[in-house]
Specification:
heterodimer; A: alpha/beta; 6 helices; 6 strands; globular; B: alpha+beta; 5-stranded antiparallel β-sheet; 4-stranded antiparallel β-sheet; 13 helices; 19% helix; 35% strand; elongated; BBS1 (chain B); smoothened binding (chain B)
Amino acid sequence: MGLLDKLSGLLGLRKKEVHVLCLGLDNSGKTTIINKLKPSNAQSQDIVPTIGFSIEKFKSSSLSFTVFDMSGQGRYRNLWEHYYKEGQAIIFVIDSSDRLRMVVAKEELDTLLNHPDIKHRRIPILFFANKMDLRDAVTSVKVSQLLCLENIKDKPWHICASDAIKGEGLQEGVDWLQDQIQAAKT
Amino acid sequence: MLGRVTAPPPDATQEGGQRIPQWGFRGWLGKLRARNLRVRAYHRPGTIERCAAPGAGPVARTTSAKMAAASSSDSDSGRAESKEANSKWLDAHYDPVANIHTFSACLVLADLHGDGEHKLVVGDLGPSGQQPRLKVLKGPTVLTESPLPALPAAAATFLMEQHEPQAPALALASGPCVYVYKNLRPYFKFSLPPLPPNPLEQDLWHQAKEDRIDPLTLKEMLEGIREKAEVPLSVQSLRFLQLELSEMEAFVNQHKSKTIKRQTVITTMTTLKKNLSDEDAVSCLVLGCENKELLVLDPEAFTILAKMSLPSVPVFLEASGQFDVEFRLAAACRNGNIYILRRDSKHPKYCIELSAQPVGLVRVHKVLVVGSTEDSLHGFTHKVWLQQAPAPHSYLPSAQGPESPSGFLFPATPLSPLSPKPPQTPAVPCQGKKLWTVQMPAAILTMNLLDQRSRGLQAVMAGLANGEVRIYRDKALLNIIRAPDAVTSLCFGRYGREENTLIMTTRGGGLIIKILKRTAVFVEAGGEVGPPPAQATKLNVPRKTRLYVDQTLREREAGTAMHRAFQTDLYLLRLRTARAYVQALESSLSPMSMTAREPLKLHAVVQGLGPIFKLTLHLQNPSTARPALGLLICFLYNEALYALPQAFFKVPLLVPGLNYPLETFVESLSDKGISDIIKVLVLREGQSAPLLSAHINMPVSEGLAAA
């Protein structure tokens, strides 16, 4: 990483644009997370189930993110794969309190990782073990066990416990993602 | 009352079939011809008797319990079998000790709170059928649990009123009551109307109240009523009759002032849309009762909107249509029949006769799928259901004629002379047409509908005693799930937020939750399921010729004489056979010596191409202990044709059990390619009659011809 790049990044003069896919089952909190990452004046008050997908933008310290917030409903999940090519990073959101559908999340993740557009790319994946505020939520360690994340060998990944309503844990995740993207670029 | 239903068209062919004498092949052929039946390879003959017992216990519960006890058999491996790697199902949850003991009628999935999170309602019988409980599950955990006063018979959810917010009410049938819950709080309790008590019984208790009768006399009188009277006793009297002498006094004192109530119990329950066919339309409850009645309840006021009577006790119900417009109810009953009821009929219009007791009833579109105790699934339809069903909007009640449809339909099952039907049944025309039958590898424990809305698939799931759950679309096997234990209840639908979830509970009280993969598509496994195609082809029965008719007539008239003539010939044949056998034994012509003192076995082999053959005689002494001594062998042959070095020689001692090969050479002298018989005689020293003899057909000498 060049000194000038760093400098310009710090000063916010020139921010690189990255495309990120936000995936996960319905009701896992994808839209809420993206909403929370936007500047406070741009946040919307009520979140409704996403239909199809929506495109959101937010900025971190050195990157400008364009997020494809995909709908997680079963009938829209086949749309995901059409955007795999464009994505430079993936945010995968998991409802930690939905113990029953953890297998479904794992199934969708496996399908994602085995897709030809993803399989041979070193694309960073950020996992949010969301809804940590709920009583029956399992820990992020347990989530990573249930999803068998240790089997992902060829891609950088990171799991963050988060509470999207309060915004806890989100920044940590985005910082990791930013580092990964910048590391991949240089 | 039953006379109102028009009598069935006299089933002449069936009657005719039975009149033909049973013993002749032609008689059987005639039967076959008359009925125009297809080959029923899948019907075992013993099952007809089973269905002959009318009203044999509560089928829904006892049969499943009986089958649960049956040992699980080995399952054959099907192509549609779900393997670990390419299974269509995700294993979401398995708890072998969830302590849920129930059957499919008591499992229901519903959005009880109206928050989009579907819960599972379980009417639990308790581990030994002793502690009935109402359980509500959210995900893998039990949300609430409350005790029930009696064993649950069925659970259902329905919308009571149209206005928002729409949270469905939960109805649980238990004993003589339906408990209705809203938002999981008790809302209403509907009790079945009491039945008129026996006046004699009433009078007795009245006397007991005034102390004019002592408990012992009361008991005797009540027992008399129980045996004779048409109206059964009330629960109070029945309990009294069970008591020991010492407890009677107290019981009488405690209960004598109460009025006698006689109540029936609910055996089954389902829901029927009131006036709209929408998904979120108000529904009525339909109850099946032990007193052979069906009741339709108003969803808001819980008044009885309609009452229908059946010839037997209903155990499974399927409803379709709308109550205010036109509806059809199919009730599988304990007498092994399925009765079809329609709007404006107090009695069944048509019935489907099964060859065995039903264990489950599922309606898939317009086909009724019935599981029977014969371990098979049957698909039934009836012309009425398909053709006479009027469009909901053009329907006029007055246009409804009571007459049965024209056109001949085959009876669902062949009527056997062995199965006496209850006297009521002939009043209901038998109209169901069997579409197909699929044989299961094990007994069916439970059945339910699999409705995959996203793909528009409706299929039948059947839980078997060998732990399999099989999914069928019509007769095509789509999938097999192997459960670790026999599955006793099944339910498919939206659970939590997942659309296609399968809930299974096992005999041991386990709970299995599986989720259908988003990408899974059910495909038919191919032609290996169901009856072989040959079964569907009609037999090419020859036309009834004049000769055939004459022969049949002659058989019928002179049957006895023909039988006698045949028997005489048979005896003569047997006599001749016996004579010839005895003669062979007496002249020792057989290669086995049958005298008790000298058992011997001879077996000869000829080797070689010629002109010199090697003749090997295998001599064996099959007795257990006695060695054979002093035997001689003699060959008898045409000396012009054959030459033997030794035509007569001694046999060594024969040790019991051992095989003695005795070899000798035979030279063929003829160069004309002639062969002859060589006789071998085994003799005993000092006796002229041979012990045994053998004729050896010598082969033609080929060596000479080649030379």
